[in-house]
Amino acid sequence: MPSLTERDKEVIWHPYTQHKTMLPPIAIERGEGSLLFDENNNNYIDAISSWWVNIHGHAHPYIAEKIFEQAKKLEHVIFTGFTHEPAVQIAERLLKILPGNFSKIFYSDNGSTAVEVAIKMAMQYWRNKGQVISDKREETRDKGQDSASGISLTTYPLPLRKKILAFKNSYHGDTFGAMSVSERSVFTFPFQDYLFEVIFIETPNANNIQDLKSFIQQNGNEISCFIYEPLLQAAGGMLIYDAKLLDELLSEIKSHEIICIADEVLTGFYRTGKFFASDYLENKPDIICLSKALTGGTMALGATAATQKIFDAFSSDDKTKTFFHGHSFTANPIACAASLASLDLLEKEECKKNIERIINQQKEFCLQLPTTNDKLQTKNIRQIGSIIAFEIIDGGDGYLNNISAVITQKALQIGIYLRPLGNTVYIMPPYCITEEQLNKVHEFLLKLQL
Questions:
Q1: Are 440 and 416 in contact, with CB atoms under 8 Å apart?
Q2: Of 346, 362, 385, which marks where a domain is finished?
Q3: Is 426 a catalytic residue?
């Protein structure tokens, strides 16, 4: 009988994987807390929360119970013309805690789609503000026309903002809109000729903040929206930047009525030490994107929150101003139930104490980690909340540095799962990781020899 790993090789195409050189995937049979167990009952500490999603660990009994209860009542229903309790309840709870004056939640499937929704909202916002639609077909001879519907488009003489602003080193997802607003990199290279143009600027620092503000002053009236990962650029290399200077930049951007989109898909739900990274900032976004930890990592769910101002631009007797976007599994009741359960756990004092303990343990480890020694040379040791990161000085900086696979393999041999971004090593543990388990991860890195 072939093993699960052998069967996998015959039928599966894995993400972010070069199959010609990949090592056989480990067959995971179950999870419990911070641990993953393979088919031979070997266990591995999940030190990266399985792609940054499992904030409460694996197979949490409370979340599983709530998922089971919901599955017995309503597993799914179309979300156009229908609603249900879990969707309304999670929206009500999110709107109370989100960093800003949000009024509406739009559901989707994951982080990339949450970003797609946000970008489309921002782009259509300006279109709706500056366009009148007529369905009088006799007018279409002399005006622009949607040939499929026969609807003519008449435009007010208002400036239509078309430019989009984003940070260099950003990553917002793998769908086309999300790729377009992400740094041109190895992730986007095969598709770069098909992506729409975006203005990329540096994250703010003491040396460039005045230049960035001047750029906004000169070009602000042409920019529709600005999308940013607040304080932490994750897939771009776990890059941390200054909250005060981001606030200063946002203040200038908002003064030009540019729509601000905060991509908090990773940074939400206490990852940075506060409930949301935007809680560190005085200037709040107009749109915010959530996913990953939204359901505690148990189900796929995305959410895009918008202010009343954004929503009002779509509320009209003119049906063509409708936000024509949706997903088959929008607001899936089981996913919403998982999200409610995850929020319940986040509110518990035990969870908050664990987060604080992890932050302190990580801080202590950063002080122990040498910048150079005979065993391991590191640089740029940094921390934000429960997340730490640093670079290994071995080969060039970047995602394609093969040292990532070497470190992953060495860690697996002693029961730890780490997946560096090239030569950038990071630890982003679930909040249930024990002191002993996190110490084991730290000790592995302190003793690492390459």
A1: yes
A2: 346
A3: no
Residue 81 sits in the same domain as residue 43: no
Whether 228 is a known active-site residue: answer no
Q: Tabulate helix, strand, coil % of the chain (nearest 5).
A: 40, 20, 40
* Across 290-307, average pLDDT: 97
Domain boundary among 346, 372, 406: 346
Catalytic, 292? Answer: yes
With bands split at pLDDT 50, 70 and 90, how would you rate the model's confidence at 209? very high
From 241, 292, 417, 431, the catalytic residue:
292
Based on the domain organization, do 239 and 324 belong to the same domain? yes
Q: Containing domain of residue 394, as a range?
A: 4-60+349-447
pLDDT by residue (tens digit) across 60-119? 999 999 999 999 999 999 999 999 999 999 999 999 999 999 999 999 999 999 999 999
> How many angstroms separate the CA atoms of 108 and 284, rounded?
22
Catalytic residue among 263, 270, 280, 426: 263
**pLDDT for residue 149 is more than 60:** no
Exactly one of 16, 72, 193, 374 is catalytic; name it: 16
- The type of residue at 240 is I
Q: How far apart are alpha carbons 88 and 105 in whole angstroms?
A: 9
Residue 66 located in a structural domain: no
Number of domains in the chain: 2
Write out pLDDT tens, residues 105-119.
999 999 999 999 999
Token pair listed for 448 = 């690492």
Contacts of 4 (CB under 8 A, 6+ apart): 27, 39
Are 387 and 273 contacting, i.e. CB atoms less than 8 angstroms apart? no
Question: Are 427 and 364 within 8 A, CB to CB?
Answer: no
Where residue 420 sits, what CATH number does that domain have?
3.90.1150.10
Q: Is 194 a catalytic residue?
A: no
